Amino acid sequence: MCMKISKTPVFLIGSICFVIVLVALCGITLINNINLSNIIRLNEKVASDSVMSGNDNQMHTEYDYVNHHHHPKNINRFEQSTLNINDSNNFKTSTTTSRSLTSSLSPAGETRNAAQIRHEMSSFNSASSYGDSVSKNWQADKYLANDRNVNTLLVQEVIAVNSSSSQSLNQILNISNNVDPLNNVSMIGLQRYPIIDKTISMIDYTRRDRIVKMMEHAWHNYKLYAWGKNELRPLTQRGHIGSIFGASDLGATIIDGLDTLYIMGLETEYKEGRDWIERKFTLDNVSAELSVFETNIRFIGGLLTMYAFTGDAMYKEKAQQVADKLLPAFQTPTGIPHSLINPKTGMSKNYGWASGSSSILSEFGTLHLEFSYLSDITGNPLYRERVQTIRQILKEIEKPKGLYPNFLNPKTGKWGQLHMSLGALGDSFYEYLLKAWLQSGQADEEARQMFDDAMLAIISHMVRTSRNGLTYVSDLKFERLEHKMDHLACFAGGIFALAANTRQSENTEKFMEIGKGITNTCHESYIRSSTRLGPEAFRFGEAAEARALKSSEKYYILRPETVESYFVLWRLTHDQKYRDWGWDVVLALEKHCRTTHGYSGIKNVYQEVPQKDDVQQSFFLAETLKYLYLLFSDDSLLPLDEWVFNTEAHPLPIKGANVYYRPALSVSGDATNAS
């Protein structure tokens, strides 16, 4: 007997099949009109962040110092690229939020005492350190900043509004030198540094907000096309494997730019970066040669700043792990470290081109701030001992005409070729002498004396004035002035001014005059180009002043040194011209360096429509945009008497002047002393 088959199920099954086919056809049509490659890539990156995996990529970095003026940051690979179109920038920033909060907290002129303030704040969520919780959402309109110490933020705002209040921030928050022996940290370690302008009179909101949008544009495109890579190639929308850190996924842009995100109040982006560092960042499996100098200033410097800002132990632990990977480079007969280190094998060496495989002054001389601070917050004196050894060698060695040549042999302890520069190969060594003194709370007199002596020798033998009155610092080779100044040397305007401002002496007036003069000269090098951006190096002579003459000197790779000096001179003088000059740089960057997918350097600043180099340098986010943002902020945001910036613009706290120094404790319970 045959079973009777109902027609209804057959009809139902057929209908379902028809719907499935229809949906599939529609899906194919939609896919053809959507660029899925970027979405898939981004989703894979975000998903991969939840799993810690080793990085077995072999890094091969091509160093071309001879063609790019002998400095790691000058590495640049020019390639032909194409443009795609995509732009998305529409995010609120904390500047607008803080203004609205200020008006809602308190009527103008009304004063509250500590008890009233605490009562008013009781309706807000109280936040602990970042490491305790990362799950809350940042509600900008209510200013409930994700994992910020909300109480601290609100008290800062109330104090700013209620100028008649006689109670200081420290009194209200009960901040003191008390420590928590159980956690071996000072009590301030439980609080995050509040990034807020205490007053608003000096803030240029319109210009500052523009710079925040620039940061968002740079970050979001890096996240979309190069997340976890070191840098972005904005024209070709991919990671830049030709950077100084090569092909390994070390997230240089993430670590370098993280404190800028934090300062700007971009909390969502900050969380993304913080989470990536916790889950993915490690040097354990990197078997390639990394620059000791660049790894220190970008990675250790960036991590230490975030530890000072947040008290999050993860940052301190990561910084210490990186420093430990660099320590084998110090194992030389003199203690002068090699330039390159393989983190996995511990093997180190110097560049073959560097004057008989010498170590480089600007590299081994630019470790003191980070290593000293690391000793203080970990309680391990080893890091300070390593850089103090370098200091003593440089202090005691004979210096030709009081000058420091750029090369020193780590085996013999003798100078290499007699090439002196306040630009590439020398620059940040001098910067760190002054800043080590500042970081110590002006207790490190040895560093200040070495700085003053070095600057007086440089003024005597290398600082010159052009026929038309431009002050410049020339390179000196074998007692012969080259009458050439690097863009890298433009930091010197700010350094001379900072030296003048922080100590009154017979050199004060001279230092300030030279600082202003050098800053003006660097500005001239910008405005004498068609793009109003400065060349990599510029010369002085009968043929030209403050202009590049060689094609290899005409490029601009988003460098920060000139705007760094604008920022410092603005803070010290409040001369409006420095803000105007900085804004001119912003407009030039937007016109010539902005692309649909980020920012790029240019190959010739003298061309009306210059070709782009297709590299968004990590220091553009870390330094250039940070200094521009601070230029248009109030002086109370990262004040120069509480913070000192490392050579990658990562602010480190000043000992004795900044409660966020967060020193570790010795066995006796006292904070570790700096030597």
From TrEMBL:
Lineage of origin: Eukaryota, Metazoa, Ecdysozoa, Arthropoda, Hexapoda
E.C. code: 3.2.1.-
Swiss-Prot/TrEMBL keywords: Calcium, Disulfide bond, Glycosidase, Hydrolase, Membrane, Metal-binding, Signal-anchor, Transmembrane, Transmembrane helix
Active site: 294, 427, 536, 561
Keyword Transmembrane helix (UniProt): yes
Low complexity bias: start-end ranges: 93-106
Protein name: alpha-1,2-Mannosidase
GO molecular-function terms, A-Z: calcium ion binding; mannosyl-oligosaccharide 1,2-alpha-mannosidase activity
Family, as annotated: Belongs to the glycosyl hydrolase 47 family.
Obligatory cofactor(s): Ca(2+)
Renumbered residue ranges of the record's region Disordered: 86-111
Biological processes, Gene Ontology terms: carbohydrate metabolic process
One Pfam family recorded for the sequence: Glyco_hydro_47
Membrane topology: Single-pass type II membrane protein
Job of this protein: Involved in the maturation of Asn-linked oligosaccharides. Progressively trim alpha-1,2-linked mannose residues from Man(9)GlcNAc(2) to produce Man(5)GlcNAc(2).
Disulfide bonds, paired cysteine numbers: 490-522
Metabolic or biological pathway: Protein modification; protein glycosylation
Record keyword Membrane present: yes
Record-annotated membrane-spanning stretches: 12-31
GO cellular component: endoplasmic reticulum; Golgi membrane
Compartments it resides in: Endomembrane system
InterPro entries: 6hp_glycosidase-like_sf, Glyco_hydro_47, Glycosyl_Hydrolase_47, Seven-hairpin_glycosidases
Coarse class of the protein's main subcellular location: membrane
Reactions catalysed: N(4)-(alpha-D-Man-(1->2)-alpha-D-Man-(1->2)-alpha-D-Man-(1->3)-[alpha-D-Man-(1->3)-[alpha-D-Man-(1->2)-alpha-D-Man-(1->6)]-alpha-D-Man-(1->6)]-beta-D-Man-(1->4)-beta-D-GlcNAc-(1->4)-beta-D-GlcNAc)-L-asparaginyl-[protein] (N-glucan mannose isomer 8A1,2,3B1,3) + 3 H2O = N(4)-(alpha-D-Man-(1->3)-[alpha-D-Man-(1->3)-[alpha-D-Man-(1->6)]-alpha-D-Man-(1->6)]-beta-D-Man-(1->4)-beta-D-GlcNAc-(1->4)-beta-D-GlcNAc)-L-asparaginyl-[protein] (N-glucan mannose isomer 5A1,2) + 3 beta-D-mannose; N(4)-(alpha-D-Man-(1->2)-alpha-D-Man-(1->2)-alpha-D-Man-(1->3)-[alpha-D-Man-(1->2)-alpha-D-Man-(1->3)-[alpha-D-Man-(1->2)-alpha-D-Man-(1->6)]-alpha-D-Man-(1->6)]-beta-D-Man-(1->4)-beta-D-GlcNAc-(1->4)-beta-D-GlcNAc)-L-asparaginyl-[protein] (N-glucan mannose isomer 9A1,2,3B1,2,3) + 4 H2O = N(4)-(alpha-D-Man-(1->3)-[alpha-D-Man-(1->3)-[alpha-D-Man-(1->6)]-alpha-D-Man-(1->6)]-beta-D-Man-(1->4)-beta-D-GlcNAc-(1->4)-beta-D-GlcNAc)-L-asparaginyl-[protein] (N-glucan mannose isomer 5A1,2) + 4 beta-D-mannose
Organism of derivation: Glossina morsitans morsitans
UniProt binding sites for Ca(2+): 647
